[in-house]
Amino acid sequence: MPITEFLSRNAKLYGSELCLTEINLDLQESHKVIWREYELIENNPAGEYRRDMTWRVFDEKANRMANLLIKRGIKKGDKVAILLMNCLEWLPIYFGILKAGAIAVPLNFRYTAEEIKYCLELSDTVALIFGPEFIGRLENIFDQIPQVKTLFFTGENRPSFAENYDRLTANCSSEAPNITLTDEDDAAIYFSSGTTGFPKAILHNHGSLVSSCYTEQKHHGQAREDNFLCIPPLYHTGAKMHWFGSLLSGSKAVLLRGIKPEWILKTVSEEKITIVWLLVPWAQDILDAIERGDVKLEDYNLSQWRLMHIGAQPVPPSLIHRWKKYFPDHAYDTNYGLSESIGPGCVHLGVENIHKVGAIGIPGYQWEVKITDENGACVKQGEVGELAVKGPGVMKCYYNDPKATAAVLRDGWLFTGDMARMDEDGFIYLVDRKKDVIISGGENIYPVQVEDFLRAHDAIKDVAVIGLPDNRLGEIATAIIELKPGFDCSEQEIAEFCSPLPRYKRPKKIIFDKVPRNPTGKIEKPKLREKYGATRLVEVQTGS
User: Fold this and answer.
1) Are residues 421 and 371 in contact, defined by beta-carbon separation less than 8 angstroms?
2) At how many degrees (to 10) do helices 4-14 and 237-249 cross?
């Protein structure tokens, strides 16, 4: 059954119950109002920006979106992109696209204008809905994307090149469109990339999305009384597929816009949150704030918080040991997954296996794993090889890229590019990444893009970008720069040169050194990691 059926079912069974809440505590002082189902209520005692939605309203808004798309000629299989910050509109828009039989194409809100253009072209997107944060970027490219016939805008100060989504959907039917969907129908395209530059388009069908609902609920036991706190961006498979456990169980979720420790704890306390998915930096920030005395746990009601789980990057065991010191009653889980495997859960630690923290875990519900050599044969237990996974959430293909698809999909197995080993108890540990992707704060940084950017500097002869250990972010992008003979340059000058890059892509550390290359001309990054990795870790640990 298609994933849209879960939404329709919840609307019938729990129509008047709240399902989603959006909270933006950054607007606490500037907005002394509260929104409930889009109606303004004055004199909000909490003094916070908040909007709530019921399951019935969620379903109706998804239906209105679907009917708008159909009215505009969007056909089954057409691609419709979403470029929004986390907001209450995000998920109804996503499900509206699916209900129309179209394919949802979520875009990373950190993309530059050029990356947005590239992804729209690669995915054959014909319609785009975007928010006010992206007007400037789209102004630069809207006349360069002729295949995108329709641009919808949600929010205030609509640009002239887009139509008003809110007004148009208000005039559309709230009844479900007559579109037949099956598990085999294509549903969504997500973007990923290796070290070769721009992202690849990952195509999933409805069956893949549905499988993630069952995997997530099996791992974390979402029940009707649970309330899930969603902080990471919804364009990411991780955030959305963890929320799919709430969809399956018909339980509440809160979208929190902001990552300050006091905001997270305040929301957990006041909204009676039971499950929180964090990235490593956010968990570390909470612990640091507690230890500095910036927040006091006795100021919050956290007794109902039962589970904290982490994904998107390797988790230092020391972090979880610290966490259990302050939250001894919390269940804990680590989630491993890729966008190609529909996000979290193809491998997970399991709440009963905290004694194995440091491992990514065991095969997830309905998943198989193996660790292979370069020929695809399984290595011996304890030996390092490439991790491969197989299950109902494996992508259909890299859209419009059969060569890349063939490189990672073999006989139903997805070869992850991650190097791993299995211990005597069957637990899997990541050793290194076969690819050079840097994961910093849960976001992928692709070294080739940063290297190509830096090579435009007049003083730079050669450059290599690698990830070095960082206690908070997991890794930081580090640029090893070899200057041209006779040229001089400072770290500050390089930092200023990188200012046009998105903030998360800018190198956090700059080292002037020779860039080693092998006889075939490839950068020998393992030598650089060996040379600088341990030094960097000592610097972070000592706080220097």
Assistant:
1) yes
2) 40
229 and 364 part of one domain? no
The string of pLDDT tens digits covering residues 280-306 is: 878 888 998 999 899 999 999 999 999
* Whole-number Cα distances in Å, 141 to 84, 106, 112, 400, 413: 17, 18, 10, 22, 38
Q: What CATH number has the domain bearing residue 111? A: 3.40.50.12780
Strand 385-390 and strand 409-410: the pairing is unpaired
Of 531, 507, 491, 519, the C-alpha closest to 451 is 507
Q: Do both 111 and 244 map to the same domain?
A: yes
271 CB neighbour count, 10 Å cutoff: 18
Tokens of 428: 């899997």
Token pair recorded at residue 349: 């630690």
* Number of Cβ within a 10 Å radius of residue 173: 14
The residue count for the chain: 544
Q: Which two tokens stand for residue 450?
A: 């940063």
444 pairs with which residues across the strands? 439
**Model-level pTM greater than 0.85?**
no
Helix (H) / strand (E) element for 133: namely none
Torsion angle, alpha carbons of 120, 121, 127, 133, to 10:
30
> Using CA atoms, how far apart are residues 132 and 41, in angstroms rounded to an integer?
24
